[in-house]
User: What shape does this take?
Amino acid sequence: MYALAGSRRISHIAFFLAIMMVMSLLIPPASGRAEDEAPLPARQGEYLGRGLVAVLVDNGVFLSWRYLITDPDKIAFNVYKNGMKVNAEPITTTNYLDTTGFDSSQYQISAVIDGKEVMQPDYVSVWHKPYLSIPLDKPADGRTKEGETYSYIASDASVGDLDGDGEYEIVFLWNPTNAKDNSQAGYTGNVLIDAIKLDGTRLWRIDLGVNIRAGAHYTQLMVYDLDGDGKAEVVVKTADGTVDGTGQVIGDATKDYRNSSGYILSGPEYLTVFDGATGRALTTVPYEPERGDVSSWGDSYGNRVDRFLAAIAYLDGVRPSVIMSRGYYTRTVLVAYDYRDGELAKRWTFDTNVVGSQYEGQGNHNLSVLDVDGDGKDEIMFGALAIDDDGTLLYSTGLGHGDAMHAGKLDPNRPGYQVVSVHENSRAAYGLEMRDAATGEILWGEFTGKDTGRGMAADIDPNYPGYESWGSGITDGQMVPYTKVYAANGQAIYEMDEAPRSTNFAIWWDGDLGRELFDHIWDNETARGIPVIYKWDHVNKKLVEIFRAEGTLTNNHTKGNPALQADILGDWREELLLRNEDSTEYRLYTTTIPTTYRIPTLMQDPVYRLGIAWQNVAYNQPPHTGFYLGYEATEFPKAKLDLTVSEVQPQEVYRFDFGTNIAQGATGVQNQAYSEAAGYGFVNNSGIAVSENHVTLPSDTRFAVDLPNADYRVTIRLGHESQATNAGVKSEYVQKLAVRDVSAGETLEYTYDIALVDGQLEFDFTGSAIHLQEIVIERYPARTPGHVITIYMAGDSTMQSYAEINAPQEGWGQRFGEYFAPGVVVKNFAIGGRSSKSFLVDGRLDAVLREIRPGDFFFISFGHNDASVGIPERYASPADYKMYLARYVNGARQRGATPVLLTPVGRRDYNAITQQFNVSFPEYVQAMKEVAQELNVDLIDLSAISIAHYNAVGVAATEKIFLYANPGEYPRYPNGVSDNTHFSSYGAKVIAGLVANAVKEMGLAISPYVIDPDYEEPEPEPTNELFEEDFEGDQSQAQYAMVNATGIAGQMSGTVVEKDGSMVLQVGGSGAGHRSKVFRIFDAVNGDIVKVNFDWHSGNVAAFPSEGHITLMDANENMILTLYTTSGTNTPVGYFVGYYPADYGSGNTAIPEGGVTTSILKNQWVNVDVTINFVEKKLDLTLTPKANPDAAVTITDLPMSAGTAYANNVRAIRFLGTRKGGGGTLAWTTWIDNVRIEGMKLAPQAGDQTALLALIDQARALDLSGYTPESVAVLNRALAAAEAIVGTDATQAEIDHAYNMLNVAINSLTTVPREPVTEYRFDFGSGDAAAGYIPVDAKHAYVEGNGYGFADTSLTVDENREIGDALKEDFVRVNGTSFLVEMEPGDYRVTLTIGDSQESTNVGVVIEQMQKLPVTTIASGQYQDFVYDIALIDGVFNFEFSGNAPKINALKIEKLPERAPGDKPVIYLASDSTVANYAEVYRPQAGWGERLGDYFDLTQISIDNRAVGGLSSKTFLTLGYLNDLLLDIRPGDYLFMQWSHNDSTPVRPERYVTPEQFKDYLMLYINGARQRGATPILVTPVNRRDFTGDVLNRSFPEYVQAMKEVAQESGTLLIDLNQASWEYFQQLGPEGTKSIFLWVGTTEDNTHLQMNGAIKVAEMVARLVKELNIPLSALVTLEDEEPELPPGVWAEAALSGPSTAYLGQDVALSVGVTRVEQSFNVADVILHYNPAILEFATIDGEDGLTLLADSAFASKRDNVHVLAAAIRPDEGLIRIILVASGDGVDDEGDLFALLGKIRSDATAGELTVALTKFEASYEGEEGSVDISGASHTIAVSEEPPQPPVTDKSALLEAISLAQSKLEHAVEGTKLGEYRVGSKAELQAAVASATAVYDDAWSTQAQIDAATAALQAAIQQFDAKFITLVEGQTSITIRDLSILAKYFGITSSHPDWSKVEAADLFDEGVIDIRVLAAVAKMILAEW
Assistant: This one.
């Protein structure tokens, strides 16, 4: 804090002075006016809007807005974000921090005045940067007549409302870089003046021509509304050749009056008034003061003659005049002009030649204007002169010329105004002085004896009333203090050397009333200043930088001023307008520091506003206010202004007065039904209650009014004289008023604007107590065309604008405006996550239509989110999509704008087969084309042109268009990003350019404006795949990075050092564990063959047994080749091919089996040369010692890891120092140099088809007449497959498999019909089969119908170890394919025998989509049997093998006995989290399945709830839950299936199924149950709490429909829980359903149920079962009706509280009701308690009563109010009288709470409290509430309970495991990654578990439940590991087998979705690279 508030003791004198100070604020500046004089007239002032601004800050969005002089003192405000109010209570300041805001939010505010809330028209988007970027149309460089070149800088600026819209435009000077001071000779470029809007739209440009010289003293720019029409004019000195904003020339364009020195000392001079809106010259007069004799101004060469100043002043006190001046060093002349009726008329002239030469030389390089004598008319402070309003001399101090002056209310303790000036004359009596502005009396001063060129007056120290002042000089651009610092009263408060080193500008920036100092960091060599703001630390007497505008520059050399400083936007603090470094944009900065002060906008203070007008003049000075604004200020007066233009007033169309008492002139409405004849009425008028002054509406009532399509202002008045109101309203789909509570006796008057499109304005009312009094509808006049054409854009995240923090992501709409010349501006309303539906519902379309003008364009592009079936708020069917688009089109046309439809831009969805990109969202593309045709709308087929561009540039180049980034490249994406939907910055430009080019060819009004912004194309990808690095030169430019290795915690360091005379990369590390680092190049080197060459110095590895490994890796971190060195002396280096886990085990090496050693010794430079052939899966290795090349070692044809799916590239070298646990400390340093990696592509080769053709001929020649039809069908299938590849370029592997299929089919021909098989025994391999086993070799291919075989025999190999064991000696290697077996559906036991006598086996097995055997290593010489029970449904076993070395020796499949019915039937529940059981730790969450048993006779049936949270119909199957269920289910049982919640989530691919796939999965459940004699019952999903207003949206409609179709098609029973729950939840409404769903504390969960909801939904299910009329229905025990309450009893009372308490503890007792059968609004309640144990706070009442203190009770409902609360403490009785407003108490729940305390002196024991009376009444009727059950007992102990003794070790272990998984897991969409969002879910589970662990009071049951829950979350997390086989938690050969099955398919294949996750290289094809990379993943697990 800078102000030491409260740190000073206030004396009596100081107190008196403070009172006087406050009084002085109320005293006019001068005392000459008599009290009985008439009040001063109001001055002309400009109308202003709210100036709302929203800025993205670190903790949300900061908003501020104007407080206007027309606002009442008691005004308050509400802030609305995206149509929803965000503040809880009205805001009395004018700024707000929305901590929930985002860069995509849009804001509006409302004003609340006397209970009326009026929405303000400002509707703003968030500034993504700390400033508003205002693009400038920078003029082209020029050349002087002497050939000197110059460019332009955006110089000083002013603001004015040029078009009368209540917001400021900017008018500014373009000064050439060769601008001159008057003392400097030389030619200058022309001075230009631009007018722009805040979005950069240029309104016009004026060229002042060659006869106006450029420099600070020549052109003084006045921008002000001179004629009172509400639009500002521009006044400036002109000359022959000046060109106005319309191209018209002033004077003679041929004249050039410049002399040889560049001065203009002859020729006419003019003064011109320009129209602010168009730049057109309105009137031009000869400029006075005229030049005359040049030498009469002080010199003859042209310096002092052209010293100009200008100002605006209210010389008559009412209307503004223009002041133009010439000269101040000697002769001084001022001329005042009035601009009236389109003409400039001279008012007066002040000339020192007339007044007296003694007044010469008194002017400054600036001036100020203010009414110093209190007569309402302005005077001009002209340096040391003061000129009265009539042009006469007021006074002169005679102190002479100066460079700086500050005039305003500087001293709050003096009457009137003060002026602080500095003076240039070293002989002046004062270098710094303060004078009385009215009299000229010098109040205080300091003689300096120097040219005191700078001075500042600003309140910077709160210890001293008024402004502090000090003077300085400038040396080499740095401030040098020349004076002490003075308080306003003249007291010297700081010595000279303590003065702030800043005298350029002062600014109100932070939240206090003091002023900050604006300055710059000046570089004298470059003559550039970086703007900064300082806060003066008055305690430590130093400047503290609080703001710096990097990337911008100050103006006017060392003067260091902004282009403009003014209160342009937002609250009363000032904005900064600064130019960026190349003047291509202005940046408008606004403060984001909150303030508690509410001050009228400074721009409506007359002195300040005139200060903004003169700020740009000569030596710019900061503006000051006409009232005191400083630390001591307490009042902020509103000026008396007559605003020239007010808000556009709409015309009243309807005033509906509701009720029987109709106001005069209003249209009376009671409950009239809508009719076309009347044109208004209620669409449904049932249930409307009519009263005298209002009508009461039921919720969901619609009032409709027929109106012409236009923009309207609506005012709604709600309220009831004696009842509370609860109501909201929606119009045109948009929730305009959220449901709001209004107290009884009060009214809410709410105003909003709405754009009507469909000819009927609808008011949809929702709420529980809707009391409608009045609706007023007013129509706005049609808007006129704007100054420029605006293109409005509506779309989604592909179009929207993004903040820089999201780099490199941009939307194409963000760049679209750059493709248009001035005259067209783009306003991008696009926002992410929106569809044509949700953009409308959010009110964004309404915002566009209320702003768009005739002649504008509306670009509309949706589709990406409309297709989101699983997100109801976005989803629009193609038919609905067309309907919504028509609304956009019609709305634009009705307002004179041109709509343009753009089909959705294409995604990066490449089809490797067609070699083309797929069309994205084809149904929506077609639907939009139909709309364009039907409505005759211009259409840009962005889908087609974007995809055509992708095809043209190729799939690789499109990565630059889309959102792709390397890890660490952008802060937003530390792990990199691969996004095929959204665009990079370059891509946004590309798409914007495509659209712009399309516009150019369309012949639209905007087509001629399309330009080429000349963007640079990104660097093309190198045609040669080559990387080279010798570690010489600048390493900051290197194309590699040293990164940490995946999965290895210990790190090494990598640095470039000098070694052996060269710069090399040194990598080293030490420690008690593995250490690693990765040398990773930015872009992998790809190729079928990749050659790697580098020099390696292995170094020494310390501490046995330790090793150093360097490994070549591909882009997916698959290990290709490892070189290693070991500890010890003169040990050789070795190598190992493929994946290995660096694990010593019980040995002394981390390399499997020790690797292969070479003869090359370690610790020397060795050249490593590796040729990697990814096609043949072989590599060649040569190691050559640099010191002895003859000792080179070459190893060729090394087989690579067969099971690894390599990426066919090399990207990294991993350095790994390994240490065996328990060994010594690892220490290893190694070096590499001269790295070269080169890739080559090989031409594809087709296989030999000779043998296949011969076999085809053999098959065709067979006589098939004697064979069974089934076996012939098998042959025909195999023959068709073989014939399909004949003549193609099929690979040899494809040909061989086709051959094997056909060969097996031929051998399968049989004459014996096939019988059902209940058991199979297979012996795999080429050897003899074991007894009783069927031999199966690697070539036994599967053909549908032949019983069994391998899916792809090109991936299988026979092996035979010949060890004498027929079953185990031989096996088949299964490298990524499946073994299929056809058997009847049923339950089977499967036994797999796996092992090898010579090698270890690494294998995983997926059976029926379930990961049954995770990848496991079986040691060499060992065999294992793996036994699983499998419920087969579809009749074909699918055994998918994965792993590094998958093998199968034998397989046995035995059918299990069929199960008999159980003792009683069981209902099995298969579902998700809405049904599941929950442990207590998760309460109050519950699933309806855990309460279903409450409604069945459990002696006759049981419930087995198998539901699991987070699962879909797909994952319930793949994770094995359905299998386990089917293995248990028996004949007579039931299977209830509720799915959809997770099936419909496209963002979770592991769960997601399309509606068609959903039907397939449901059939598996149905068939599985029926096959086992059980009854399947489909249950549609319980509806979510998803309201739009008060209307409940239906959840998952496509999936509900799909389930109903399955039920109908398959004859399956169905329970329509979706419909039943929707009806019930709709009845409860948005508030009522909160008690159903998990709305608890801060949790707002609209999907999951709390216990109350679970009970209700379970009851619904039971009722629906009862309605099925099946045997199960008879077991429902649902009680249809509860017993009625006795007569006169209206409800049952409830009393609740804590179960335990201790002495001295606070307790709360809640009193409520249940079973409310009659509502009541008054109650009388008595409670009895034991006063020896419990006590309550009391107060004394009247008549001897003792009352409960307010702190002792609290209402639990908004409409329940405790009127009286008495207590008899001695008797232990409390009596409460309460009243309930509105509808009274009509539902169950708590009413009020009593807040007491256990007495400290009480005796431990039991405390029982009970109600002894509960009487109720309603409208005079008497009733009672049953209190028989209303008692509660609390166990009271002496001491607080101690935490229980528990064991948390298992919980800690689970937390550690989860955290470890989180640390190493990577999210994404590819194999080996985890689904996006899975880490967050596990992290949430860890957080919950940690909370239990950290809670000392957690019981063992809670700990156990938390442990179980976290373990379940870990299981679910593991389940989100991405594989191709659901249920697997690692990559296995099952994945490879699937890939093998689909080998060669591309993204256009119908089964592509099954393998899309394996498209590791985003090439849209499953090729050998993919298989190799997947195999490498398998090895990684090993």
